């Protein structure tokens, strides 16, 4: 049931590829709660996805292509979004991540460093680039909220997550550091959500994903958090109910992050 807690708020949502995407679910949830926003993704992703269907379902939201590694594209995205939406922004979702090493199935101990640089640029440095341009353009309203999506591999070793673990570590560090500066300058909040393994198009591309997903589900007392639940959490962080939450990495994983071992997992490893 909608409570219209985002009524009157404007934003940008990055990364909605298809209906499995957390960004896609977040856009629908934000629309239901009264927000208006633009949608963006890389030009190639827009050609592959069905984002125009999402835009239509969200009150004919404007779709603006942008390469997150391009300052020119991001500047245009921010400016056009403010023009289309009629003012400064109240929220931004950074749901961006890509690793060519993962796609090419390169082992962590045998990475292509040109690919690694690209991974960091797209998956993490883009977060800093985006916030820097938002600040320079004075594009965020006071008490605005910026959220990036991350994963617990930033703190723990998950071998098949590859260099994306370091990318997420960097993303979380940018949230803390830029969150301080944006908070002091404009009272803008910056947080990351560390989500359960989620059956998105991108997430399912990680090696051994199904086993990984099932393991986390067994370990978590509440089970894995769904994409829909993550979307609702994003809405809460965009709302005025979380005005004093900033510079945090917020685990949204059914309790996985603080569970040492679960009874279900113990049963799997029990010896007769």
Write a structural description.
The protein has 272 residues and is α/β, with parallel strands linked by helices. The protein has a single domain (10-269), classed as NAD(P)-binding Rossmann-like Domain (Rossmann fold, 3-Layer(aba) Sandwich), CATH 3.40.50.720. Helices cover 44% and strands 14% of the residues. The protein has 10 helices and 6 strands, in the order βαβαααβααβαβααβα. A 6-stranded parallel beta sheet has the order 2-1-3-4-5-6, with helices on both faces. The model has no long low-confidence stretch (mean pLDDT 94).
Topology:
Blueprint: E1 10-14, H1 22-32, E2 36-40, H2 43-48, H3 51-57, H4 71-85, E3 89-94, H5 100-103, H6 113-136, E4 140-150, H7 164-186, E5 189-195, H8 209-219, H9 227-238, E6 249-252, H10 263-269
Parallel strand pairs: 1-2, 1-3, 3-4, 4-5, 5-6
Helix pairs in contact: 1-9, 4-6, 6-7
Summarize this structure as a short list of keywords or feature phrases.
272 residues; alpha/beta; Rossmann fold; 6 strands; 14% strand
